[in-house]
């Protein structure tokens, strides 16, 4: 089957990709109809027979284990290293809070890490005396650093008192891929614990996770895995499990070997020790169906390769336009391509693309100048997936060229649609 035929067939199974130019999987991916059907089936069962049957909790555990298995398959890793959580942020922070922190310990991270994580690290620092050292992904002039420059900025900090390196696989702001292989290896050699935020990586890129082997990886269901909000995957390295690097500070019923009826309890020896409770059965079914559908019916290698090519084609089509500034260097981006257009606010770009092409994009925020780090202006973010078409790439590039050639005041108005009533 040709790519064109395959994409057309898949788009028919993802209705929102036919209703718009869907360019925001970095927030929420398009929902496959099959996922909706799987969730509705469990909803219907709960509606008709109730949610409080004797074996309801056993069913939750079985569905949670099914999702763990699908996530393990996506990562090509061992099942005992995988758990599920409620969000990437929670799945990163709960294990970090279980580390043994002392006043003066240092955490190294980047300014384009997700704000909720950065804010939570600041709260940890205020409470415990830990220092958070935040590096920029840009130089003093606001230009994106190269991979070697990023690595060079981190290496001098991988000694005492640094205890943790926390970084994203892909920046949610600029879309740039970080040189995680070099950084994780250097941190491991220095005895520094590593946490990898995979929110914009898992499902968008094909990484050899067992080879990268961060001490902790967390990723969401609803973005590039096309699943459900409120669910996330966790992968803990075998070394971190053995060393109890992340001691559980709280656990749901799925985290224990049997229920702690003696008031003490025993956490599971595998990654499930980091699981909470409160998982919706329809959501578990939907998330498992989504990731399984992506892996088996779509084909993850094909999906990631196609998405990367479309993103690269779009980057190439707009990067040399006068007035256009790209946030990631050539070849340095993943499936997210972020940009600014002179004289235009990002929210204006979002609005124009929506009006003129029914495109779903988003604005990413500015970063303030702080502690000697350069600030950055807000930008337009586009997220390219396998469901997008070459025609859509050309259309959005054409519109960026049109917009860049004008100011908001001089841009020709889109013709008014006149609705005729019979």
Verbal overview:
- By secondary structure, this protein is of the alpha/beta class.
- It has helices at 3-12, 16-19, 33-49, 56-75, 88-97, 115-128, 147-154, 180-189, 209-212, 238-243, 281-318, 346-357, 390-404, and strands at 21-22, 82-85, 106-110, 131-135, 162-168, 193-197, 216-220, 232-236, 324-326, 336-341, 359-360, 362-364, 379-383.
- The strands form three sheets. It has a seven-stranded mixed sheet with strand order 2-8-7-6-5-3-4, sandwiched between helices. The protein has a four-stranded antiparallel sheet with strand order 9-10-13-12. The protein has a two-stranded parallel ribbon with strand order 1-11.
- Helix 8 links the parallel strand 5 and strand 6 (193-197).
- The longest helix is centred in the C-terminal third of the chain and has 38 residues, at 281-318.
- The two termini are 44 Å apart.
- The model has no long low-confidence stretch (mean pLDDT 95).
Order of strands in the sheet with most strands? 2-8-7-6-5-3-4
Shape: globular
Q: How many separate helices?
A: 13
What is the typical, i.e. mean, pLDDT?
Answer: 95
Alpha-beta classification: alpha/beta
Q: Ends: how far apart?
A: 44 Å
Work out the strand percent. Answer: 5-15%
């Amino acid at each position: 089957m040709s790519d064109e035929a395959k994409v057309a067939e898949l788009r028919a199974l993802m209705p929102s990709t036919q209703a718009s130019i869907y360019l925001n999987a970095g927030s929420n991916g398009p929902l496959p109809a099959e996922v909706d059907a799987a969730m509705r089936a469990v909803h219907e069962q709960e509606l008709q027979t109730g949610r409080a049957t004797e074996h309801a909790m056993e069913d939750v555990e079985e569905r949670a284990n099914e999702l763990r298995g699908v996530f393990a398959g996506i990562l090509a890793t061992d099942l005992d290293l995988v758990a599920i959580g409620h969000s990437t942020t929670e799945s990163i922070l709960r294990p970090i809070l279980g580390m043994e922190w002392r006043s003066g310990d240092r955490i190294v991270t980047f300014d384009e890490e997700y704000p909720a994580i950065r804010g939570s690290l600041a709260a940890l620092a205020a409470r415990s005396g830990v220092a958070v050292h935040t590096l920029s992904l840009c130089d003093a002039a606001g230009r994106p650093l190269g991979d070697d420059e990023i690595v060079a900025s981190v290496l001098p900090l991988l000694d005492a008192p640094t205890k943790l390196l926390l970084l994203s696989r892909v920046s949610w702001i600029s879309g740039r891929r970080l040189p995680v292989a070099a950084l994780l290896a250097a941190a491991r050699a220095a005895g520094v614990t590593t946490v990898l935020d995979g929110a914009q990586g898992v499902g968008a890129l094909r990484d050899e996770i067992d080879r990268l082997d961060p001490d902790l990886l967390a990723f969401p269901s609803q973005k590039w895995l096309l699943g459900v909000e409120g669910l996330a995957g966790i992968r803990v390295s075998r070394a971190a499990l053995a060393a109890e690097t992340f001691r559980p500070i709280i656990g749901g019923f799925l985290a224990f070997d049997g229920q702690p009826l003696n008031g003490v309890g025993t956490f599971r020896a595998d990654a499930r020790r980091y699981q909470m409770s409160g998982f919706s059965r329809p959501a578990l079914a939907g998330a498992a169906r989504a990731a399984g559908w992506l892996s088996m019916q779509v084909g993850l290698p094909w999906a990631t390769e196609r998405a990367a090519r479309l993103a690269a084609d779009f980057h190439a089509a707009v990067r040399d336009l006068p007035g256009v500034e790209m946030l990631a260097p050539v070849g340095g981006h993943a499936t997210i391509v972020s940009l600014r257009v002179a004289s235009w606010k990002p929210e204006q770009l979002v609005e124009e693309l929506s009006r003129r092409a029914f495109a779903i994009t988003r604005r990413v925020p500015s970063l303030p100048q702080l502690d000697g780090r350069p600030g950055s202006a807000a930008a337009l973010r586009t997220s390219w997936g396998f469901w997008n078409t070459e025609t859509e790439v050309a259309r959005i590039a054409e519109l960026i060229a049109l917009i860049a050639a004008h100011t908001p005041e001089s841009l020709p108005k889109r013709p008014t649609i006149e609705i005729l009533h019979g």
